[in-house]
Amino acid sequence: MINKIVDSAAEAVAGIFDGATVMISGFGEAGSPVELIHALVDQGAKNLTVVSNNAGSGHVGLAALIENRQVSKIICSFPRTTISVVFPEIYRRGEIELELVPQGTLAERIRAGGAGIPAFYTPASVNTPLAEGKEVRSFNGRDYVLEHAIKADFSLVKCHTTDKFGNLVYNKTARNFGPVMCMAAKTTIVQARRIVELGEIDPECVVTPGIFVHRVVEVSNPADESKLVAEERRYPWT
Length: 238
What we know:
CATH topology: Glutaconate Coenzyme A-transferase
Number of domains: 1
Number of helices: 7
CATH class: Alpha Beta
Structural class: alpha/beta
Helix content: 10-25%
Order of helices and strands: HEHEHEHEHEEEEEHEEH
Radius of gyration: 18 Å
Shape: globular
Distance between the termini: 36 Å
Number of strands: 11
Largest sheet: 8 strands, mixed
């Protein structure tokens, strides 16, 4: 067993290289690893391909990474909301590439990547622009589109509680993408609200076992992303 704890968010994201594919967990404040993302902004890796449920809100978190021109492509299912201000403008200027994926398909592509499944067929997106150029086959009289698995060099994930070996417990919607992203990356980096002693987590409550986790940093008082967006603050890490 290996102690996965590192001392800072900066140390946690060290080694993320230019051109890397980075998965970023989300579903709101419960799962958005804001401190890890801002540490990556400071670290400066560029030409990143980001896989995320969304394209960021306001000027914080993923939006800050995009605004700093560190992301060349984003693969997501929900690129624009009423509070998305950064991505739409940069996309309209042709400065970032978007691969739009139905949300269930996105989750399954990531899960497949972690499970060693190279591709699968799904009825989602049949007869839509999202199916253009993709193989379509009929099973039992219904058409299905071939979708390929997604893997990443790194995953940035937020959990509620972990121990030093990286056994993770999540908070509510953080479970939507966090667990599958941990499995689909070569290096999984986690920020946790609490790091507890070994044995304090009931094994029956562990969602992601430590075998899928490589670095853990404690952020006991994480930024409230929705509050920062509401206040229109740009760079809360400075």
